[in-house]
UniProtKB/TrEMBL annotation, chain A:
Native source species: Thalassobacter stenotrophicus
GO term, biological process aspect, one: transmembrane transport
PROSITE patterns xrefs: ABC_TM1
GO cellular component, one term: plasma membrane
Annotated gene: gsiD_1
Official protein name in the record: Glutathione transport system permease protein GsiD
Membrane topology category: Multi-pass membrane protein
Pfam families tied to this protein: BPD_transp_1
UniProtKB/TrEMBL annotation, chain B:
GO BP terms: transmembrane transport
InterPro entries for the chain: MetI-like, MetI-like_sf
Family according to the record: Belongs to the binding-protein-dependent transport system permease family.
GO CC entries: plasma membrane
Sequence ranges assigned to domain ABC transmembrane type-1 in this UniProt record: 130-348
Compartment(s) where it occurs, according to its Swiss-Prot or TrEMBL record: Cell membrane
Pfam families (UniProt xref): BPD_transp_1
Transmembrane parts of this sequence: 9-30, 136-157, 169-192, 226-245, 284-309, 329-355
Membrane topology, record value: Multi-pass membrane protein
Gene coding for it: dppB
Record's keyword terms, sorted: Cell membrane, Membrane, Transmembrane, Transmembrane helix, Transport
Protein known as: Dipeptide transport system permease protein DppB
CDD domains, per database record: TM_PBP2
Gene3D superfamilies, sorted: MetI-like
Length: 483, 362
């Protein structure tokens, strides 16, 4: 079988179109940016019939050129995608094959965007996101990886080969190499080549998204729970509590992150059970948070409160016990037969250290916001009504701090993704054959100057996810400031 | 002002003590010591032998005592061998009169310990490597700070313009590109012999070697030039640049909407003069703090980039020490990095007060 080219026969038509439109667009934007220094003001000229034209002349021409070349670029890209979806790798080459594999993701993305657009006005802040281009691009990128991770994790779609399977004769093969010994009905190519253990780079990248998507948002959520549970009282009460907690937070923040990882994630430390003890402590935060949240609201109606507490806390406590107790670590307080699941080796350690690194920053943000909000009138009103301190913190202050917290949540997922990648890059925590992006980059970098292709796909994947999260946060910030 | 600095210094020393104690505890946990005993002594030691080795080397004393010894405020351990030789923390093997050796020898006395991997004094290794990393950081600063400030000011002086959007997209992209991603991309595109760019350049006869840039910076340790040093420098600089540029942009846009800038515009002052004379000085206060607080992040970048480009500086040493259970070296490296972080925080605090007239005068 012939090896695939990047764009196949589709490329003969579309590649020149792409090149021309891209070149014109880049040249136009650069020229306009340069010209902006010489004529910062927009000139308004009045026509004879009394109408005013804001742009004209060279500047107007430039604007039109940029607009049309951008439209042409988008059209070409749509052409690639449509061609890829219809013909797959037979006519679309490697890109066509990849785009064809992602068909479920495209479908889900289109459905999400159409639904969101239709009900835009009823969806609050989420709906407003669709007013900002930047926010939409970011949301698109994030959802692309979220759906990819979901479809692979739930149904095993999208991948072309098993991510851990070692094939013969595919070691370090370049992208588009026909797969030797492909079975009937199996995918006949390694779309993005093989790595140094002859595994399919494309499938490993897809599988890596699931690992990242499983850990990063949850770790960020836990970090927020810890940060909020400690930051609210520190900011609201002040005094000694604030001094001690702030000092501890600064202590952790003064550690270079990598040193902290090396100190927490090495096998010797794991052997002492330190990460398990930290998990015991850190995972308490959501339970305390939920308990206090419900109690502070409903403590005047004990039956209602007891019901809500039981409904919310029973599963959480069960999860906590199952998660934390592990017969292979020093922290084991229930018999192994009652333990429903254990987090597989390494992941708990990685999770805990990422939460540990992130929570002091969240603490500082929440504390700062609380210090600001507690001077507002509605807080004084609640105090005059005689509300409890926790009620004021959780039901008066926290909802009013949600804007900056949501924005920071998005940014922080991106930062957590970067941290996970750093851990993988140094080969810490996760098992070496794990397909997560950091570990694959680490493996690929060893032969980088001869075979660059195994390290590049996970790099771009990580880059696009983090970029998407940053753009999403930017869009959200812009839209939440507009109210 | 003096009181403020003194208080900050006090907090800094307390933080440093706490941090070094934490690092000391984490590196001196029993499994680490057991591994140390087995690498220093014999891999087939039984548990009792390990214990006796550790005991005779002062490793089994309470953690606080050991920390005090390492710091130099508690007397060092001594141990009489079975054949009558006196050994101890402060006694170097082959010393003339072991009885007369110093009682205290720790970091405060300048005894940083002995690296078990490099077989050299920790102080010496750290000193050498700090020099190399200093060279890297110097060039990073030279590239990063002016670049970030120019990008931020250009983007912030006309909020919402095409220039602003282009530059903001650029800076947001760089903040989303961690060093291990940009470094890998740079090497793959510019320093890999298989990359199309290098094949083209080779074919055209424009480069002498196989690649345009060098994929490793090992040769840059002695003789740094553009072709072997540019990639590591730009890799670290780019990640920090976006963040500083965004802060500068935010600060600049805030200043540009201030009352006094509007007054100047209404008076008819030229736009260039407003930016350079009225706005710039006030807009640069916030970025100063940010640049200083970037140091812990830069330290991260240094570790990644030195590993990726095989540049044997401070970050590379950290990885080697941590990966090989070299307790004394890891402690030395941690102390230095913690001090760098705390010291930059101090400078940032003091500098902020100095630069900002509203705080300085009150």
């Amino acid at each position: 079988m012939e090896p695939l080219t990047w764009t196949g026969s589709l490329g003969t038509v579309l590649n020149p179109a792409l090149g021309v439109s891209l070149a014109v667009l880049v040249a136009g934007v650069l020229l306009q940016s340069l010209l902006a220094f010489f004529q910062p003001e927009e000139r308004i000229s009045f026509n004879a019939d009394g109408t005013a034209v804001a742009t004209g002349g060279f500047n107007g021409l430039l604007k039109a050129i940029i607009k049309w070349s951008f439209a042409a670029l988008v059209l070409t890209l749509v052409g690639y995608i449509a061609g890829g979806i219809i013909t797959g790798h037979t006519n679309g080459g490697i890109f066509g094959g990849i785009i064809r594999q992602f068909v479920p993701v495209w479908g889900a993305l289109v459905a999400t965007f159409v639904l969101s657009f239709v009900y835009k006005r009823r969806l609050g802040l989420y709906g407003k996101l669709f007013d900002s281009t930047v926010g939409m691009i970011g949301f698109g990128l994030v959802m692309f990886w979220a759906y990819t991770a979901l479809f692979y994790g739930m149904f095993g779609w999208i991948i072309t080969h098993e991510p851990l399977e070692v094939a013969s004769g595919m070691k370090n093969k370049v992208p588009g190499t026909p797969f030797r010994g492909a079975e009937e009905g199996g995918f006949p190519f390694y779309l993005l080549g093989g790595d140094n253990l002859s595994r399919d780079v494309f499938s490993r990248m897809i599988a890596g998204s699931t690992v990242v998507m499983q850990i990063a948002p949850r770790a960020t959520l836990f970090a927020f729970m810890v940060g909020i549970t400690l930051g609210l009282p520190a900011g609201y009460r002040g005094g000694l509590l604030d001094t001690v907690l702030s000092f501890l937070a600064n202590l952790i923040l003064a550690f270079p992150v990598i040193l902290l990882f090396y100190l927490l994630v090495t096998p010797e430390i794991v052997e002492t059970g330190l990460p398990s003890y930290m998990a015991m402590f850190l995972f308490l935060a959501p339970i305390i948070f939920t308990g206090v949240l419900i109690n502070s609201r409903f403590y005047t109606q004990p039956p209602k409160r007891n019901l809500y507490m039981a409904v919310a806390l029973t599963p959480m406590v069960l999860l906590y016990v199952w998660l934390v107790s592990d017969s292979s670590t020093p922290v084991s307080f229930i018999p192994a037969s009652l333990d429903a699941f254990n987090v597989p080796g390494g992941i708990l350690v990685v999770f805990v250290s990422v939460v540990f690194v992130n929570s002091p920053t969240v603490f500082r943000i929440v504390r700062g916001l609380t210090l600001d909000i507690k001077t507002r009138d509605y807080v004084a009103a609640a105090q005059t009504r005689g509300e409890g301190a926790w009620y004021i913190m959780l039901w008066e202050i926290l909802p009013n701090a949600r804007g900056p917290l949501i924005v920071d949540f998005c940014l922080r997922i991106g930062y957590t993704t970067i941290l996970l990648g750093t851990l993988g890059f140094f080969g810490l925590g996760l098992p070496p054959e794990s397909p997560d992006w950091g570990s694959t980059i680490n493996e690929g970098r060893k032969l980088l100057s001869i075979y660059p292709h195994p390290a590049l796909p996970p790099s771009f994947a990580l880059l696009s996810l983090v970029l998407g999260l940053n753009l999403l946060a930017d869009g959200l910030r812009e839209e939440s400031l507009k109210d | 002002m003096g009181l403020f600095i003194l208080r900050r210094l006090g907090v800094m020393i307390l933080t440093a003590l706490c941090l070094t104690f934490i690092v000391f505890t984490l590196t001196n946990l029993y499994p680490n010591l057991e591994k140390l005993a087995k690498t220093e002594g014999n891999f087939r030691m039984s548990d009792e032998q390990v214990d006796s080795w550790l005991g005779s080397n002062g490793h089994l004393d309470p953690m606080l005592v050991k920390y005090g010894r390492w710091l130099g405020v508690a007397p060092g351990w001594t141990h009489q061998d079975s054949d009558g030789n006196l050994r101890g923390r402060c006694i170097t093997p082959g010393m003339e009169n072991p009885e007369n050796a110093a009682t205290y020898c720790g970091v405060l006395q300048g005894h940083w310990g002995f690296s078990s991997v490099f077989k050299e004094n920790v102080g010496q290794i750290v000193g050498q490597n700090l020099g190399l990393t200093g060279k890297l950081m110097f060039w990073v600063m030279i590239v990063m700070v002016p670049g970030a400030l120019i990008v931020g000011v250009l983007a912030g002086m006309n909020e919402g313009s095409r220039t602003d959007r282009t530059l903001s997209t650029f800076s947001i992209t760089t903040t989303a590109t961690p060093e291990y991603v940009s470094g890998v991309i740079f090497i793959a595109v510019l320093a890999a012999s298989a990359s199309p760019l290098n094949e083209f350049l080779r074919g055209a006869g424009w480069i002498e070697g196989r690649t345009l840039f060098k994929g490793t910076a090992t040769s840059a340790m002695e003789d740094a030039n553009f072709w072997n040093f540019f990639l590591p420098v730009i890799t670290i600089a780019l990640y920090g640049m976006g963040y500083i540029a965004r802060m500068t942009r935010a600060s600049m846009t805030e200043v540009m909407t201030a009352q006094y800038v509007r007054t100047a515009r209404l008076k008819g002052v030229a736009f260039k003069t407003i930016v350079l004379k009225h706005a710039l000085r006030n807009a640069l206060i916030a970025p100063f703090t940010v640049i200083m607080l970037q140091f812990p992040w830069l330290l991260n970048g240094v570790v990644i980039v030195e590993t990726l480009f095989n540049y044997k500086g401070f970050g590379w040493t950290l990885v080697q020490a941590a990966g090989n259970n070299d307790i004394e070296l890891l402690l030395g490296v941690s102390v230095v990095s913690v001090f760098v972080v705390l010291f930059t925080q101090l400078i940032s605090d003091i500098g902020y007060v100095f630069l900002n007239p509203r705080i300085r005068i009150s």
